[in-house]
Amino acid sequence: MDFHEVSLVSTNKHDFDLEVVLRALRMSQLGGTDVSIPHYLQAYAELCRFFKLTGRLFGFVAKDLEGKMYVIQNKLDDDHMHLNYTSVKQMAAFEINNADLSSKSKSFVGCRALLRLHWALEFIVEFMNKLKDASDHDKTSVIASEVYSKTLSRHHPWITRKLAAMAVHLLPSRIELISVMCKQDNQHVLKLLGEVVIEGKRVYDMVESILYNNHLLHIP
């Protein structure tokens, strides 16, 4: 799946498919030490579908994430560049070796975009982790607000944090959220959530390690 498909994803209800996310996350893991960028983006394409289905809540987040995905996908679509962007390690090594020290804004384009996706993945995985352990009638608005404040909000400007704080109250209970948005039934979704959290944490930790080892965790 490339970004041109991603930008045309359906936002019909009952459309979010956790099995797609789980499969892509598993396929993205390369020997436990590297991450396949095409499969990482495939997982994110489906996760963006979830953000869009929440409506106003994280629709603005989905738009931002798609922009970052587009940046990386452009590199993959470039016949002269794509071999340097097939995995996170390859991308990091290539952009470090080809950094333009006179223009930081033109350097680390792919890694900068990946870092923003990486930040959001922390929120997604933790939100799903809390969601699977909640009761059917727990308010997902409370869960999302608590997780957002501990994760993604650290990287957002004040205005974005205010928008999130206002919009989060629109989220329904857990059982309503699953019923309205997810392709699978409630029990299947809860099982899948546990598996997605496990695989998502593995992918997150691998990307975190690669970025840390290459001093790329604080790209402005």
Automatic annotation (TrEMBL):
Pfam families noted in UniProt: GLTP
Top-level division of the source organism's lineage: Eukaryota
GO molecular function: ceramide 1-phosphate binding; ceramide 1-phosphate transfer activity
InterPro entries assigned to the protein according to its UniProt record, in alphabetical order: GLTP_sf, Glycolipid_transfer_prot_dom
Domain Glycolipid transfer protein: 36-182
Gene Ontology cellular component annotations, sorted alphabetically: cytosol; membrane
Name of the featured protein: Glycolipid transfer protein domain-containing protein
The species this protein was found in: Dreissena polymorpha
